[in-house]
Amino acid sequence: MDFNSKAVSDLLKNCNQLLINVLLRRLPPKYNFYKSLILVAPTNILMITKLGQKFTDGFTKYMPSAYVFALLLTLLTCILALAFTDSKPITILKGWYNGFWSLLAFGMQIVLIIITAYCIAQSSPVKKGIDYITKYIKTPTQVYVIIIALGALLSLISFGMVVVTAILGRELALRIKGIHYPFLVACVYFSFNGWVCGLSSSIALLLNTENNFLIQKGILNDTISTSYSLGANLNFAMIILFVVVSPILIWLLVPKSYKGKELKDLQTSLDDETNTVKDEALSYKLPYKALSDALNNAGWLQLTVAALGLTYIVYHFKTKGFDLNFNIMIFIFIVVGMLLHITPMRYSIAMKRASSNISGVLFQYPFYAGIMGIMLASGLGVKISDSLVSIATTENYAFISYITGGVINFAIPSAGGEFAVIGPSIISMVQELGANLSPTEVTAMTARASMAVAYGESLSNLLQPFFLLIVFPVMGKGIKIQARDVVGYLFIPFVVLFVIQALMVMYLP
Predict the structure, then answer these.
(1) Each residue's pLDDT tens digit, 276-319
(2) Is residue 263 part of a domain?
(3) Which of 136, 277, 345, 462 could disulfide-link to 494, CB 3.0 to 4.6 Å?
(4) Do 67 and 89 sit in the same domain of this protein?
(5) Cβ neighbours, 10 Å, residue 141
(6) In a domain, 502, yes or no
(7) Which 3 state secondary structure label does DSSP give 129?
(8) Do 167 and 285 fall into the same domain?
(9) Of 315, 339, 354, the domain-final residue
(10) How confident is the model at residue 3 (pLDDT cuts 50, 70, 90)?
(11) 293 and 160 inside one domain
(12) Do residues 408 and 305 share a domain?
């Protein structure tokens, strides 16, 4: 399939026009001036390719590494907490220190999701599967578009599935010539943006959890069904935006030149990629028969334990339904890896290789957790959200929630942690605005405002390099690459999606 054909160009125009028409019909007459601006915009849409490169150059020049970003954000949060709250310096320091350890469990989950998924990717069956896929993917443009679309679909299962997308992206980059690798990393990172619309949407799941903290505090009287959040028309429209429109947007932004930017140009070492896991396992064998070798390569031993794991997985889904959380995902990946690698030695080698590039996750997560601790201890997060909520009306409450989610995310890049800080203010705002409405209407407004927070939080991740820590251990293995090399390609998508999403949360029914 030729993604540079006239058919795709026509499809682009039709999709853009359809989306614009749907949104414009929802705009009140007072916005006629803005309607005219939006109608003119498609004729100049191809200019974003050149703009994209300019923004990329700017980010490369001025954006520091993810770790430096975390350090600067730590100092900025401390200064804001001192300036705008009554908190004493020691209170802020205590909050920072205590917060340091609040995401240890989450950080370990991220580490395990990365290495277990990467471990699976090193197995012979998966390698053969990727070889088969590459027969039908011939050009770099096809790689970019397919990665975005497939990654968006996978993210609807869980945001941890971005690791799988990253693995596929790297393998395709090894096999197909002409791929601009930093741009491909940006595509992988962009692809998981829609996870908040799917089965692992933490805010939607929280609202539907019995006796959640909002109910315990008396802010909510009862749970809110996911039919109001994930099942809403707005959420389905967001899914279409991520799965259909985003690939087209990325297609417009494909860099014209890939000179010096292919994976082979950026590699500083090949590590173990030239040798298979099976070959390395054989190299550890002694030149004579030994019980230790027999046990290290005993397929029956590992497969027996894996069978126990499969039994529990079946039991889990049979008794709890489609309850897909981090823990069960990691457990599934571990068991699948055991089955695919067969022997303990091969599995150990695959795990060792997969664990070789996770330092960023291990030492940077505590810093972001510390920032969250400052926001909580000082009350800065609540103060910011209260300030935004104070200007809300029945017309703009969803937009205010959307903006709040995006702003707070820079300091608390975790949807669950962020909603713990601003959720009470958002929900209280909705209840106040809906005082004269029916309970059903207030519930729908609450779900919409909460999901708007999630959409804003997810979108601002494009400029917040925190979750690049999930992608880099896979795609940054053995190469020189930093956040500044990637985030610049995401600025234009950020702006375009911000405009579209803002209109959607305000006007789509």
Answers:
(1) 788 888 888 888 888 998 999 999 999 999 999 999 999 998 99
(2) yes
(3) 462
(4) yes
(5) 18
(6) yes
(7) helix
(8) no
(9) 354
(10) very low
(11) no
(12) no
Q: Is residue 57 part of a domain?
A: yes
Residues 302 and 370 in one domain: no
How far is it, in rounded angstroms, from Cα 40 to Cα 24? 13
What DSSP designation does 270 have? -
Q: Taking the CB of residue 264, how many other CB atoms lie within 10 A of it? A: 12
Chain segment 478-488, per-residue pLDDT in tens: 887 888 888 88
**Residue 434, helix vs strand vs coil:** coil
Q: Between 63 and 6, name the one with better pLDDT.
A: 63
| Side chain identity at residue 367, one-letter code | F
Which of 296, 319, 354 is the last residue in one of the domains? 354
Give me the phi and psi of 372, to 5 degrees please: -60, -40
Nearest to 397 by CA among 346, 434, 344, 435: 434
**Mean pLDDT of all residues in the chain?**
83
Q: Which two tokens stand for residue 49?
A: 């390719």
Amino acid at the residue 62: Y
Write down the residue that tokens 């334990």 correspond to. Answer: 305
* Angle formed at CA 377 by CA 373 and CA 380, multiple of 5 degrees: 95
Residue 14: the pLDDT is 59
What do you get for the CA distance between the two ends of the chain, in Å? Answer: 36
User: 309 and 411: one domain?
Assistant: no
Q: Determine how many CB atoms are found less than 10 A away from the CB of residue 133.
A: 14
The two tokens of residue 3 are 């993604």
Per DSSP, helices labelled H in 284-396 are 291-296, 299-320, 326-341, 344-354, 359-378, 380-389
Amino acid present at 313 = I
Side chain identity, residue 72: L
The secondary element (H helix, E strand) that includes residue 451 is helix 439-460
Domain assignment present for 250: yes
Q: Is the pTM of this model over 0.85?
A: no
More confident residue, 118 or 297: 297
Distance CA 17, CA 467 (A): 33
Tokens of 145: 């578009």
Task: Assess whether 350 and 367 both reside in one domain.
Answer: no
Contact between residue 176 and residue 258 where contact means Cβ atoms under 8 Å apart: no
Work out whether the CA dihedral 483, 488, 492, 495 comes out positive or negative: positive
Q: Which domain holds residue 500?
A: 6-100+137-271+356-507
Whether 467 and 189 have beta carbons less than 8 Å apart is answered as yes
Q: Three-state secondary structure along 453-483?
A: HHHHHHHHCCCCHHHHHHHHHHHCCCECCCC
Do 369 and 476 lie in a common domain?
yes
Overall domain count for the chain: 2
Q: In whole angstroms, give the CA distance from residue 148 to residue 489.
A: 14
Residues 6+ apart with CB under 8 A from 449: 397, 398, 401, 426, 427, 429, 430
Q: Is the pLDDT of residue 171 over 90?
A: no
In the chain, the percentage of residues whose pLDDT exceeds 70 is 86
